[in-house]
Amino acid sequence: MLDRRKFLQLGSTLSASAVAHGATNLNARTEVPFTKLNVRNRNQNRSTLICSQGMVATSQPLAAQSGLDILKTGGNAVDAAIAANAVLSVVEPMSNGPGGDLFAIYWHQKDKKLYGLNASGRSPGNWNLNAAKDLGLDQIDPYSPLSWSVPGCVSGWEALASRFGQLKFSDLMTSAIHYAEEGFPLSPVIADGWIGRESSQYSNLYRTFCPKGARPRFGDWIRNKDLATFFKILADQGPGAFYKGEIAEKIIRYSEKVGGRFSMSDFENHNCDWIEPVSSTY
């Protein structure tokens, strides 16, 4: 197993990507020497991967490769994790995306300290228990716009990159832009989880992810030009553009159209929080 002091886990609400990278060198090792019994008892069907410089692990190979490319160009674990996370929102959108939240635990070798980041969003300022009671609600439909909170993922990227990253933020968006614009082949597991006709009541969602009027199948070539445009805005203007620019304005207009409660102040006042992770001996 990897030294826990050189481990970083980063993800949005629905998915996480894990990247481990040493400051100078990372030696993959096990607590117990490999024996025939140990190997046989390992619940996996792939050989153990051993590396000398760094590794990236995600649920999708294109995302993992994108993170590895960042490491090869001089980026660190945070840079690689952000790049892989962005690509996952393109190639595995049912599990991951910039419209969600982000949580990270990061060991900083120089400081010898474990950092926690809570980049979850808050409910709109004008939406509270009394407002729900005024509408006669005792519960909120999870698919209702009244359940929406300000997306915190992009603010998490910004906080991590500005504090611990080494590369320009625009460099971290390059692969996500490429796969969203040029496309990628849909893998079998992700094809199985892709949305289908059940999403047709949400016209924009259905148009984006079922462009031919049906659920894409394994091997289909997938593009998402709107998402490519989104990442280009972040690359050109910085992640703050999500909360104080045209992206926020479009989200708010759509929220108003469908009965949501978002206002511009909700986005402008959003912030994420650095926290002290809970710890114990073991």
Count of separate structural domains: 1
Order of the strands making up the biggest sheet: 3-2-1-4-5-8
Helix-and-strand structural type: alpha+beta
Strand content: 5-15%
How would you sum up the major sheet? 6 strands, antiparallel
Give the C-alpha Rg. Answer: 20 Å
| SSE series | EEHEHHEEHHHHEHHEHHHHE
Which residues form runs of ≥5 with pLDDT under 50?
1-30
Termini separation comes to 16 Å
Separate helix tally: 13
Number of strands: 8
| Helix percentage | 25-40%
The backbone outline, from C-alpha atoms, is globular
Average pLDDT number: 85
What does this entry look like structurally?
This protein is α+β, with helices and mostly antiparallel strands and 282 residues long. It has one domain. The protein is 40% helix and 13% strand. The chain has helices at residues 36-41, 61-72, 77-91, 129-134, 153-164, 169-172, 174-182, 188-193, 203-209, 225-237, 241-244, 246-258, 264-268, and strands at 8-12, 16-21, 54-57, 102-108, 113-119, 184-185, 221-222, 273-275. Strand 4 (102-108) and strand 5 form a beta hairpin. It starts with 7 loop residues before the first strand and ends in a 7-residue tail after the last strand. Mean pLDDT is 85; it is low at 1-30.
